[in-house]
Amino acid sequence: MPQPSPRFDIIHSEISKDLERLTELETSARLTPAQRQMLDETRRSLGQVSSELEALRSEHEGLQADFEHRKKGLEDDLASIRAERDGLQSDLTSIRAERDGLQSHLTNIMAERDDLQSRLEDLQGDSPRMEVNALLEQFRHDLADLNWRALHPSEAERDQPRVVIERMEVELKAGLDLAQGVQLVQLRGQEGAPENASVVRFTLRPATRIEIVEDEPGT
After folding, report:
1. d(CA 161, CA 46)
2. Are residues 15 and 105 in the same domain?
3. One domain for residues 89 and 76
4. Strand duo 183-185 + 129-131: pairing
5. What is the pLDDT of residues 106-146, one digit of tens each?
6. Measured in whole angstroms, how far is the alpha carbon of residue 204 from the centre of its chain?
7. Which of 74, 109, 125 is the last residue of a domain?
8. Which residues constitute the domain of residue 121?
9. Residue 42, number of CB atoms within 10 A of its CB
């Protein structure tokens, strides 16, 4: 909207000059009644125009003041919107940085998950297994071998204390696989837990060897 125009002042000044000329003409010349009447009508018309002009000036000033007030409000709103936009831009930058950090963290978690999945698959793979009869036969064989070595020591072991296994108890903890007969399966998933450990108990006694010597005839 344009600034207030000086046209109001120019027109008002011209009207004032015309009124002054009418006054001078009225006092300096002899006028007929008809001329005086015409002069009075002209003066009234100029006065009416002057009043309307003042009204227009007042209305124009009011509109101008309202325009300035609205302009100031819009400028304040625009400044507030710009400040809010800058704040949102800063928040958006922070959110993007946080998103990138979370994406990196998620990538690490997924890599760790894949590693744990791989390890779990390894643990759930084929576990060592053995038939019950084969295990018992292995225990018997090992026990007999230990006792035979205790009763038949080598030259280097003759002077060392020797014991034999008199009794052996086995508390075996294992899974059972019935797919192909009864087979014992090692508990791979929890093999490190103490409660899953098998227990072997031995009862020992000193190893003695009785030699029978026959008397010779005539003694």
Report:
1. 149
2. yes
3. yes
4. antiparallel
5. 999 999 998 888 876 665 555 566 676 777 788 888 888 88
6. 64
7. 125
8. 1-125
9. 14
CB atoms within 10 A of CB 9: 12
Is pLDDT above 80 for 199? no
Q: Does 212 fall in a domain?
A: no
Q: Is the pLDDT assigned to residue 4 strictly greater than 50?
A: no
What would the 3-class secondary structure string for 133-155 be? HHHHHHHHHHHHHHHHHHHCCCH
Which two tokens mark 113? 């998950």
Taking the CA of residue 179 as centre, how many other CA atoms within 13 Å lie in the half-sphere pointing to its CB?
6
Q: What tokens does 197 get?
A: 């450990």
Distance CA 145, CA 135 (A): 15
> In terms of C-beta distances under 8 Å and separation of at least 24 residues, what long-range contacts does 101-110 make, across chains too?
none
Per the CB < 8 A criterion, the answer to whether 174 and 109 are in contact is no
Cβ-proximal residues to 25 (8 Å cutoff; 6+ apart), any chain: 31, 39
Q: What angle do CA 99, 103, 108 make, to 5 degrees?
A: 150
Q: Would you say the C-alpha torsion 17, 22, 26, 31 has a positive or negative sign?
A: positive
Question: How much is the pTM?
Answer: 0.34
- 3-class DSSP assignment, residue 8: helix
Structure tokens at 67: 């325009």
**Beta bridge partners of residue 177, listed in sequence order:** 183
pLDDT digits (tens, 9 = 90+) for 72-112: 999 999 999 999 999 999 999 999 999 999 999 999 999 99
